[in-house]
Amino acid sequence: MVAAAASDTAAQRRAAKRSPLSVAGFKKTVSRHAEIGIFLIAALLILVFSATSDGRWANAYNIGTILQVTATLGLMSVGVALVIGTGEIDISVGSTFGMGALTYLSLVQQIDPPLAALASVAVGAAIGAFNGLLVTRTGTPSLIITLGSLMIFRGIAIALTDGFSFSVPYKMRSGAMYTAFGGDSIGMFNTGVFWLVAALIVLTAMLKLMPYGNRLLAVGGSAASAHSRGVRVDRVKLQAFILCGALAALGGTLEAGKLGFADGSMGRLMELQAIASCVLGGCLLAGGRISLIGAVMGAFVLSSIQSYLVVMGVRPQWFMLLLGLIVVFAALGDRKLRAWALKR
Amino acid sequence: MAHPLISVKNLDLYFGAFHALKDVSVDFNAGELVGLVGDNGAGKTTLIRVLCGIHKPTKGEVWFDGTQVKEFHPKLAIDNGIETIQQSVGLCDNLSIARNFYLGREPVRKILGIPFLDFAKMRGESRKVIREFGLRDNVSADDEVERLSGGERQSVKIGRAVEFMNRVVIMDEPTNHLSVREREHVNELAVQLKEQGLLVIYITHDIFQVHKLADRIVIMENGEKVEDARTTDMTADELEEVIRQGGRKVEKRGAA
Question: Is A221 in Cβ contact with B92 (below 8 Å)?
Fold first, then answer.
């Protein structure tokens, strides 16, 4: 009887330890999953924004808009997260996004939207291959290489558009195929959101459940160790860059489909938002530890903040400043949380 | 025995202007435990890094089982059945023991033709090694390697090499960081592997330790092979004297 009671309390203690609702359990969850921080930040911001915006922020239309922006930025962010996972970085994605948008818009009037989208993704993959080959073949830091390609492809985008914008006539902006690539919404969800969800599921499965993911994270954790185990380090990095370029161009395609036009500045500064999304989402810039869902949540937080500033009538001049400040504070809060979780 | 399993002929390796290996020629046979001995910077690790595909020699030939090796990459060495336990590399801190265990040759189960990691196998095999090497009770196959002590890391590397052993096991300072009991275990394993017909190359700077295990001792000094003798022909004391003299010879040459 006494023994039974004792084992009972032991079982309860164990249960308390495991339950994510207890402090100890929560601590463990945070220390194991770096992306918890961004989920808490998102929840907090949703509460604050809903409470202080008088219904202007938290309504179906606005949330739909936020999710559309999250979709395009999120696709770019998961791509960047994969490259960060290998211990490299790709800051050229803003320009790749623009090139993807322009490719799609220039082709979609002549050929079917799926083919135009495929061409756009191929252009993105080619830009990724350009980055990846230069980084792996020359051993030059990826920051410098992709800084160069950021400017090169922005330059090409500006030269192509020559001060004008590429656009699709209104009468062509319909049909199931056009709708499928960001052109319209299903319910409150822009079709881009479905692409993001699909990409997130496929890439997460690849990262966690397939050999390629194991090797990708190994390369980021210790390239020398991965090499010594027979992993083709350069090949893994090149593949990550190609995926990243393709995803950024897909994001550009979906944004182009949504807007129906694009100029040479499409996607400018988005590369910085994508990197911020990754870092906020729990990706370690040193490589080896990334969270794709975290990167997407990071993109959601950034688009929510932007949207809040818009609906609150903050003058656009202050956007960058405020966005930057909120990012800094969110990052600090996340750091504090993680430091607390790792403390015994 | 028709030909040696690994044959190195007149090997030279430069790192930039630094001459790391100087005209090294040595044969290794299957079923042999060879001690590769020398002071720090003698070129032992560099030599085995050529054998396991990390470094490509500048000049000279490497023959494996009768065919000349033309391309150097760890993947090819591993595919040829050469397992290497290295000092500083081999484990990724950010991955679990199970994931590290099969890194580079992950077992998969295909579902609709898509290769998914076979976690059951990965965990099962690494759990076996964890038990066999007596890691702490609370270490699980899903724990990140970051959590392990130096000795536990070494145990995982050795366990992995033994698990995949097929023709050659190269051990670079395998008993560093190990407790006395773990060291005994590793040395026993090295002898067992040899008895099963594998070639074991055991690198250390402790000549007395390896003399007890090895059939042959190869001594390197300053990038050159200075001695190659059977342990039945030379005692550990004599061999230690060679190591000492190797050092002095270099000094004399420098003075002249």
Answer: yes
Mean pLDDT of A213-232: 93
Q: Are the beta carbons of B27 and B6 closer than 8 angstroms?
A: yes
Condensed to tens digits (0 to 9), the pLDDT of residues B36-74 reads 998 888 888 899 999 988 899 999 999 998 889 888 999
d(CA A6, CA A10): 6
Assign domain B6-90+153-255 to its CATH architecture: 3-Layer(aba) Sandwich (3.40)
Q: Is the dihedral of CA A184, A187, A190, A195 positive or negative?
A: negative
- Convert the pLDDT of each residue in A68-105 to its tens digit: 999 999 999 999 999 999 999 999 999 999 999 999 99
* A239 is a domain residue: yes
Residues 61-100 of B with CB under 8 A from A: 73-75, 77-79, 84, 86, 88-95, 99-100
Sorted by where each begins, the domain ranges of chain B are 6-90+153-255, 95-143
Question: Looking at this predicted complex, what is its ipTM?
Answer: 0.83
Contact B56/A at CB under 8 A: no
Residues of B in contact with A229 (CB under 8 A): 74, 78, 90, 103-104
Interchain contact, A210 vs B95, CB within 8 Å: no
Output the CA torsion sign for B213, B53, B155, B196. negative
**β-strand partners of B83:** B169
Q: How far is A190 from chain B (nearest CA, A)?
A: 30
